[in-house]
## 1
Amino acid sequence: MAEERPTPEEEARRLYDEAEARVAKAAERVVSRESFGEVLAMATENVVALTRIGFDAMDLVWSNLRLAGRRDITRLARQIGRTEDKLEQVLQEVEALREEVDTASDNGAKPASGAKPASARRRAPRSSSR
Amino acid sequence: MNALERMGRTPIAALEFANIVLTERDAQIAVTPKDVVWTHRTTTLYRYRSSARAYAIPVVLVFALINRPDIFDLRAGNSFVEFLLDEGYDVYLLDWGVPDEADSELGLEHYVCDEIPSALREVRRTSGQEETTLLGWCIGGTLSLLHCALEPATSVRNLVLLTTPIDTTGSLYSTWVARDSFDVDRVADVYGAVPGRTVDWANKLMKPVTNYWTTYRRLWQQVLAGEARRDAYQAMAKWVADNPPFPGRAYREWITWMYKENRLVRGRMRLRERRARMSAVEQNLLVVTAGADHIAPRQGTLPVLDQVASADVTHLDRPGGHIGLMAGSKARKEVWPDIAEWLGERSDA
């Protein structure tokens, strides 16, 4: 039995798929070259330099308008972040101490005054400050 | 479909194609119900609600810093989280959130030495279990490995690494960013938080024709043939386009230490004055690699198998790409069950 011949449309599709696969492979070879890496590094440097000029110009405008600029807001946000770090440390210390009290009371020792009953020791989920 | 039918269908298909592409942001992803357990700065620890728990040891999922962790719970019917819950695991997700310029001083140590230990502590507290499984994907895998290397007393019993970069020698990323002319300090200093779009752009540039042309051409053909799977395409497209910024310091450290100096595999990675040696890792270890992974190539992950001190080491090598391995159409049948089986034997049924 003779093999069924592909229709012109199927043949066109096959040729297109082959061409696309070849172009894709060629593009992957191009981007994996050292020279492409060099071009990419230079292009990145240019984009970064332009971004810096843009940021500086915007900051200058805001500063002259006596308005809080990007840097001022970032500085404030960082301070909030550091405060949250300290709060987290304090909470972890408090929990560690509570666990110690818990263990001591489980072992028969008298809990320290002010220690909450076990049911109250579970910390509720905390919300982020942002 | 003959030529005439195709011609008649083309305007409708064009409308549908445009609609799918333009409304991809409306796709519903990461919809499995979850509760917030703990938050700190941009990090949030979630716990998924489970009704059929069969295993004692909870699973903590950690994803990379360059994409959102929604990929673990992409869409109903194709969600790794949903799969783990159905298998009977208690599942937690560590979400790094969306950092901004104010978080530019956060380095790798913030994630490895502060956030992962704190999250594991909360997992122990809320689950009542002393041990956990830590499952990291991509950079999340490297961060998880670093945690185990630095904390001998960690609660991690099982460590699962999915397509994780360990040795970056010869990778395409290395060709681009390990060179002296790529000034990572300048990029990190100017941006503070490196825009997620640039990282996404770099990832796509690795396979430019496939990512910028073939994806859309295939979708067009599917639409024309009336076979387009709108929900699957839109869910993945939405996730791919959602790239959080990379905190400047963490970006600088990641590029310098992993790509320019390749510290991890050389045993020279130091965080908070402590050296992270893979030889200190003793957890049960499962390493999953993808044969066609161009972001974290398979050969770059394999050195972990020889360097850890774990007595129980398993390596699964599967076909697929960096993301397709776990989120592709075959993952549910060919990858997830293997992971679940490995976990099941080590999670106290």
## 2
Amino acid sequence: MERSKEIDVCIVCHNVDCAARGSIPIGEELTKQLAAAGSSVRVVPHLCFSACEEGPNIVLYPQGTWYKGAQMSDVGGIVAHIQGGEPVQHLIEDVDPALRDLILTMIDMGLVDF
Amino acid sequence: MEPILFTKAPDAGPQTFDEYRAEGGYEALAKALAAGPQSVLNELTASGLRGRGGAGFPTGQKWSLTAQEPARPKYVVANGGEDEPGSQKDRFLMERYPHKIIEGVLLAAYTIGASAAVLYVNALFTDAIAQLESAIAEASTAGHLTIASVRITPAPQQYVAGEDTAALEVIEGRDPLPRMKPPFPTTAGLYGQPTVVNNIETFAYVPSIVRRGADWFRGQGTADNPGTMLFTLPANVRRPGVVELPVGTTLRALVEEHGGGLASGRGVKGVLPGGPSSGWVGADELDVALDREPLAQLGSTLGCGALRILEDGECVMEVIDEIAQFFMAEACGQCPACNMETQTLAKIITQVKNGRGMPQLMDQIPKLAAFAEGKGQCSLVSMPVPPLISAARLYPEDIAHHLEHGVCPPP
């Protein structure tokens, strides 16, 4: 399926494993930096992306980038990507394409409330 | 049908020591002591008895593996945690036939060379614990506890506490968290020593098998799964409760003849034959034999024989939502894949139930299951999947109505 190039929401996993690796403060920092940049993209918490061992997991939607293992030091790069820059390469290099498809399909089919 | 366990009338009280002796109780122990441990293993293996806790592992093989271990001491654990929703069979058996369990446990201890046995019993089952305590005292007075000591450890009311290695953790004084397997308890169980862990019901068959022989036991049940089995009929049939029937009895006979059909007089829309982790068996599939392979062909399992019956006019969505929420809440939290799967499945079902998903959302369940398959330390990771997948197969109208309207279809 051809995906939209738009990014409306930045979905951050808040489940046990992602939260234990710092996903909640990362989401708060994303919210802060996006607001400071004047972006209309919303940061939305979500329960799980079925990739707990890879977290913290962040999905840019509907465009479809899955960032796995995002750290606080990556927030600036993610915001720059959302603002039209290049993706943060080291967070997308090793993604399992089948798992990425499953994550995006579940969101496409209505798993997440925006 | 010749009962092996329920040899008294259903409304008769607990079987006393004298009553048990009168039907041949504790003769198996004397026979085993005379013939040696290998004779018990031979008879048990030939009988084909499978564990009645849900997994159905061959009991003779489990005991043989433990008997072969050179390490000492060894232990026997009888699992009566019984946290499976809807199941009452272990409780009933412990309350009514405590001596069959005690003799079975002593036979296990003698056969594998164990010095101690633990009865792991749901702490809420106070009557069962009282009956077992009396039976232990009577067996001791009769001189049977020279083989091994027998004590009771109360089990917490938590689903995962019934998993065999979680039970070992509790007996050792820790929280009920399943261990990574292998090693299996047959090699490294209680306190790291070789241990036989079987369901309470499984032990109760052993004295009769040893006393009357494997051929007699094979006279009932199926070739793959001989003997009888306990089933728990739910509250919505005319005669709820625990019944003993040959393995291979049809689901229809269990529900209609033994349960008396639904108390409401309505038709059966579907049945979960083996607890909440089994798959639905549809109304036109009720002639299936209650055995492992026939149920597997329908995407279901025999489990511990605890039935849940969906009635005509009821919506499956409420039930599968409850099941998905149950497994999410009962996951112990140790394994990321299990956290992921149980929570994502619960979310999928909630979204569909509330009319907030697309039809393809249900199609993601098998893919999600494939990602999580085998990744947990216990089997809970795969437990919510069969009832959800089978509901999508059998009741697409219920699901479609929820997707469109967010509520159950009219009855």
## 3
Amino acid sequence: MNGRRILTIYAKELRDMLRDRRTLVSMIVIPTLLMPLIVGVVVFISVKVIRQARAEAPVVMVIGGDDSPGLRAALGAHGRLRVMPAAEDWRTRVAAKTVRAAVEIPSGFDGALARGEPATVKIHHYEGELRSGFAVAELQRFLGDYRERVVSARLAERGLPATFVKPFSVQTANVAPPEKVGGNVVGGIIPYMFLLLCFTGAMYPAMDLTAGEKERGTMETILCSPVSRLDLVLGKFLMVLTASLGTVVCSLLSMVGTVTLGGPLVLSMAGAARAGASAAALPTLDPLGLAAVLVLVLPMAVFFSALLLSIALFAKSFKEAQSYLSPLVIVIILPAVAGVLPGVELNAKLALVPILNVSLASKELVSGVWHWPHLALIFGSTSLYAAGALALAVRMFNREDVLFRT
Amino acid sequence: MIVARQLSKTFRDRKRGAIEAVAGVSFCVQPGQIYGLLGANGAGKTTTLRLLATLLQPTGGTAEVAGFDVTREPAEVRARVGFLAASTALYGRLTARETLAYFGRLNGMSDADIAARTQALAHDLDMHAFLDRRCDKFSTGMKQKTSIARTLIHDPPVMIFDEPTLGLDVMAARTIVQFVRECRARGKTVIYSTHIMSEVEKLCDVIGIIHGGRLLAEGTLEALRASYREHDLEEIFVQAVGLPPAGVAGNP
């Protein structure tokens, strides 16, 4: 092994790659723009839709209840609903979304209430439609209040206290730290993006530096120089690793930038009234945990780089390499997605499964959970896989039938 | 100097089994001499030259290049060889100067040596106009000159040419042939493979006819003409490889 030659090869590959527009796009532009773009689009659309929906008082239709002027009058007076006169085709109108919900008052409702007899008010809505949901919520709130008023009146009539029908109340309190809440929601997705970018970042240079060189005829040129195959593969490997980690770093910086710059923007967009709710929805990640995720991603990047280099070297042309490597993206996505699924928890066995282990540990780390034995197991096993992949790459570069495959 | 002793290479192919690409080839090339390896496509020329350049490992026999054994000291051999083939391309995104610097560094040269050598080669090959331009924008002629400079950057005593004129036009091919002659004039050991008879006639001091991985005839052009009693090299070649002479098949 000759350090100077490895560095010479690395420096040349780096310069070569930085002059290639396609690498720059896959390594810097895409990961940098991806994060703010995803977050921006999602936040923008959801804030806009929710705001618009909230601003608009839902249009509801009251069906029946001609003999119940009490409830009708109360409904008409409720400022947060726009009551439309009843029409025969109310079902079609709810489906067509010109009316958000219809409330059906049974005949003799007011009379039944006065007599203390049971009665049922029906709400017709369009399941799954956001604004229909808002109308239902508003109707339920209104009807709930109306019922409370009836109950209070009845209790007062009989001279009973309010606690007669509500002997105790139930409260729920959250003990999870805020980062745990954010971590479970966003925590799985962010490390998963890192894993994917770490892989895709290595993919293009791995193909270009092996099959691409064979195709362009520069592989033979470099092989007939005095550089040893070991130095050659290490120099190339360092370049692929740089691209992989560069992609992750770009996406990380972009994410930090999105949260610090974009956070206040989102709050102002959401409006002062909903500020509290929006702040809770924003990811609050443990920065130390995020740093630990990067430490775990490091051997993963080594593993990906060496593995991609070995496979791509086998191909004769860039296209052939693409057909080998593209399906691998799915192989990466599957365990990474499995890690995001609810209910899948890290244990000693899963800590040995490549990709899935890092994905699961990342979810815990960003939500502030540090399980040292598992972390050590993951780092150790991933490093071992990485070393294996690198050894495979060196072996492949020493095989004539792979280098001069015809 | 190049000495090949019973050099052999057998490839394993899953479908076709063992393929003897080179079978017991022995020859010797002296400094200041051009040895022409003449053969048809698939005769074993490229494999033989790749064995000499240590791109491939022999499965039998060995060779000595510039005093170093190809199996035991491949890095030493490569440091003393300039290898130019139709299949050795340039890095498109590097300039000619960067290409020369890269190969200079890989050969362990200092930056000062590289700069001086680049200057000298650029002068000899008239490369100053495009020295700092990227190779992917070059004409064929510019690429040829840069490739030649690349093989010469470390001033190797042995030059290996594998069908270097393949696919080139007359002018570009002439540049190569002229360059090969200059290598001989500077006392380098040169081995040159081709299937073009006229190139061999013009260029080579010793000719080896290779077919089916075996060296079937060897000698100077005069010696071959004398032993085959034939003036035309093409006829000599056909007789050496054992093909029926032209015209016979049609006249019973």
## 4
Amino acid sequence: MDALTQADLGLIGLIFVLLFTLLIIAFAPLLREDSGRTLPKRRLRDISAFTKLRGAINNSVEAGQRLHLTLGRGALVGMGSASALVGLSVLGRVAQTLSLGEKGPITTSGDGTLMILSQDTTHNTYSTAGVVEKYDPSDGQLSGLTPFSYASGTLPFIYDQDSTATVMAGHFGAEAALIADASENAGNLTIAGSDNLSAQAVLLVTANEPLIGEELYAAGAYTQAGDMHTASLLAQDVIRWTLVGVILLGILLKLIGIL
Amino acid sequence: MIGIIKRYILVGTAIIAGMVILLGYFIKLPAIDSARTILLNWAIILAAVALIIGLVNLLVVHSRKIIDKKSGNVYSVILLVSFTITLLVGLISGPTSQGSLWIFNNVQVPIETSLLGILAVVLILGAVRLLYRQPTSFSLIFMIAALVILLGTVSVPWINVSWLSSARSWITRVPVVAGARGILMGVVLGTVATGLRVLIGADRPYED
Amino acid sequence: MSEVQCSHCGKENPPDLEICQHCQSPLVAPQQPEELADVPPEGPLSELTGIIPIESAVNEITIPKPYSVKVRVSESQRANVRLLENLTKEGVRPPSRERAPGVTIQQALRILTAMALILAISWGIIFDTPSFQLPSADARISEFSEHIITLPESAPVLLAFEYEPGFSSELEPSMTIILDQLLSRGAYPVLVSTTPTGVVQGQRAIGLLNQKAGRVYEAPSDYINLGYIPGGATGLNSFNAGIRSTFPLEANGNQVWALPPLQNVNSLSDFNLVIVFTDSTETARSWIEQVGTDLQDTPLLMVASAQAEPLINPYYNSDPRQVDGLIAGLAGGAAYETYTGGMEVSRPLWGAFNMSVVVAAGLILFGGLVSVIGAAYKSESNGPSGH
């Protein structure tokens, strides 16, 4: 087989993206509760991190305490943008529930655009809930611009604020271990996920509830952010199994000498 | 009514911009290419401006902390003073001048290197605690792999056995890469799904 | 004295009370309606009955009687009210996070671990013996060096400083040797970075080389520092699309593209070599994906941190290669030093590195065994029922 040209690869990529989009759009109506044709009910496996997140949010409301969310340092124009968007959707859901309580979430981030969006998300959520007077711009802060300055700038929020849990959702590097360790020292529940492999490795040993692999991207579906999130999770599963099949087929063809 | 029109404009702008960038990557057409370049340049400018906004936010928050005399405000004073000095040195003599270099070499590098040192302590203790918290076979494999990687790197005479270096090499070339590839594939799918949700207007982080 | 019956709830009350102690209604006897005067025989109200005559109504207008609302409460009741008031005033406060006095087990373990590492590093520095040999070079190291030593005179070389200051000690040994090789061969390094600290990081690298080499390399005669590219991967894409438009001026605001080594450089493929110094897999991938595809015959080399090596290796081992040379970690730098036989930059660190790694491995092994025994003991003492 001749090597694929750049144009061929572009076409394959475009087909992949279109297929993915179609799957998401196709699955979304089937997952609505009020639709006649729904997919089987037990479609999400248990992830204890999200179960404990729900518990932590409820505890925060009941005890009148805060929840600390740190969104990482993924710029929206960089590779960490997707995990940053996931962090923002988690923030939206958390702020929605905490708007019922005394205190809202406090958010830290390591990027300017992320900081602006975190303030915006909190403000919009409070507006929708009718408690816009609770919004304080200082509830969304930039803690540092380099990885270690971001980590060390986040530590005071863990130690000084009366928070019950620390949720780390976004793009982190190995410096995530410092944040997770500080949270554990402060007696907080630590739920952490990153798209970076080094961060996942260090969070496995330092966080109470690490999210490994792509579990972070399931946050929207597990926090009931909408049918589209669950639909995209299902679409990911379909594509994943397709890729597994293609890889296995490729191995077989290579072994028997066709490729 | 105005709210609905505003929402459609916001969503429409996001979708069109996203489509131009995405299509420009897969399809090479001059019109799409030039639109893509313009949009990317705008994004870069916005990223640089957001950096400045982040800095201003940092200053405002710490200034407020000092004015309100909150606990730990002495660190905010230190931050503001060091920020001012570094900014002045950089503005007056340039970012690559001797003054900037001195601050970088004698303040930033030692601090960040020390933090990395603390990270080493944290990770050692974390690895030990993992076996206590989750005494499973996977934790044991994790620990053994960590030991092989560490000891396969060094050349201390009484531990310099060739099989450790070979084992290290095999672990980094085969299971680590295989596992990492699998995880990365999942991360890529998640990334694509997140991006597509924004492109089709299902996720609207920019909305009012 | 006889008790007074409440007209509202019917219960008996002490005679001196003005308010019923059961239902809080006033205990004043209701007024009997007055006998109404006879209806006038003529006029508009002649046929109506039960009308209050205006004269009697006017005569009866008085200031309303103030009814007492004083509630009789006992002292214990007052104390309970005060308590409730205080509780609601202060609100629910979370338990304070005052740390327990003294050193906890966790803190003690941290201190001991840190001291063990510090002792190991100190011993490695003080008692550095020839037995801590530098690692030998392999084919990868020789290939990397080959790309540099075959450069022509005044060849423009792009150097990207993409690592955080914390990783300086790991990457600087190999970086210093590479810079020395480039500058002593007359190549023209062009420094650039997509991290905010990279601009100064590059300058620091030159400064370190000047100290080690004993001569002073200066800009713009020996090298140039273009500066910072904002926007991460997007910025890199833009840099690839137009290097001159991205950097019309260099980091200190001076014109650069008219300088002799850069006059013919209009795109990244016009550089003779591109070397990326990075601590992160994402940055390495950004360079490979955004820049590598357009480099054509220009080799792309990487000097990476050990944590990024496993994921950059596949790009090095691929066919065709997407990374043409790779040095990883302090061990890679030490092997490069062995191969080039140049200045000693890894040698002073190698002994300390070795000792600290051995101590770290020992701590993990010992601590792991203790953890396993502790976990087994805990599950045994809990018993099979788990109680």
